[in-house]
Amino acid sequence: MVISMSTMKSIYRTVFFSVLIGSLLVFSGCGSKSPSLVVSRVTHFLVQGNGESLNFPLFAETIGIETIERDLAIAEYYHKKLSELYSFKSFNLINSAVSEYLLSSAAEFNSLHPIYQYEDSLTSIELSLVRFEAPQADYSFRITDRLNHQTRHHQVSVQNNQSASVGLLFDEAHNRGHLIVIQLYSLAITPDVTPAEFAEFLKHKNSVHDSALEGEYVRGDQKWMDELFKGKSIPLPMPPPVPSLPNKSGLIDYDTPPSPVSGYLALQKAVQYPSTAKAEGRTGRVLLKVFIDEHGDVTEHEILKSAFADLDSAAIAATKSIKFNPAMKNDKPIGVWVTIPLDFKLK
Amino acid sequence: MNPDNSRLKLHMTPPPEMQSEIERGVMNSIEALPAPAAFRSQHRQRVIIGITAVAVSALILLSTQIPKNQLAINRDFSESRIFLSDHTSIWLTPVQAVNGD
Fold first, then answer.
1. At the fourth CATH level, which superfamily is domain A259-344?
2. Where are the domains of chain A?
3. Residue A19, Cβ neighbours under 10 Å: how many?
4. Whole-angstrom Cα distance, residue A287 to residue A305?
5. CA–CA min distance B44, chain A (Å)
6. What is d(CA A304, CA A312) in angstroms, rounded to the nearest whole number?
7. How far is B53 from chain A (nearest CA, A)?
8. How many CB pairs under 8 A join A and B?
9. Global pTM?
């Protein structure tokens, strides 16, 4: 087949300009989208058969008390909300995590952004943000059954200022499973958004429904403010820093955190409610900072948040009465500081 | 202008059977000559630009498709959803458990 020179030229011209226009359209589509700050908060529970309890884990020394209190308030909120839906009512808070991404291009709006990872001997869970298009974010769950070497993917969509929970039993015989709650907060940073409005958004993403806790700014919020508003940035009032316990060895890095040998439930059960406090109807939460040595014993303690003197004493006695698996570093047991929340509630 | 110019040209070109061996050889070698250098470089440039543009747009389109392809959702779990005012609750149950296997 013979194609004349002028025909070839016109074909090339057509192809070239149509591709050029197509590319420009694609890029202009990206350019017109304002960057969005997408905040995903994950709360992970281990749920099981019976009881109506909510148990808390140990918190690392490196986490501030304001973070611990926020995590506990969120766990309480979802325990109340979800225990009305599910037959099992025993929730054990495993972890909580917050990820904040500033998405500014089409590629970033449609890419995998890791949100949360969990792994134990039975299950591993990977949660990623895969797509964001205001007001909705799509998340993918990658759940691996490590005993049967099976991996499954699931997708869940969450609307802005809303939440979704995904539950899955891994031990049907004992009705045990994972329950993961995702909360989404997002804001498009358009030229109309003022630093004051952005500050309100930051406070809102840190707030907890149905909680007495005021939305406070956390470390990292000022960084976003400075980065996004540069010269117009406003200072955010930070909560006063909690005085750290004078620690002989400073922060201790570990690979595996310590844990109660008989589980977190055993720790809560070890608490002996003082009879006078029970008779007077006194309740509260004690936040204890304890040193768990390389043998798994509590050797030192400090009260970070007191309830009542007798409740504090009962909390200290409970932590000292149980044995812990010590924290591990390079496969060797080491002593570390952790924070333990203990609740005193009357039914 | 001579209206019979074309005919005249025809008459001036001898029929092939009348061309000598030398004439045919010369004509063949003229036809085998490559296109002028300027045309060749312009042509190559256009081809390169065209291919690059096609490749770039293909890459952009592919990159936006990747997450969708990675989300092959398994069907061996039954999914029950409960919608509350500000919360969606999803419970995944293995299909075997639903069937009572």
1. TonB (3.30.2420.10)
2. 36-232, 259-344
3. 20
4. 5
5. 11
6. 10
7. 6
8. 96
9. 0.71
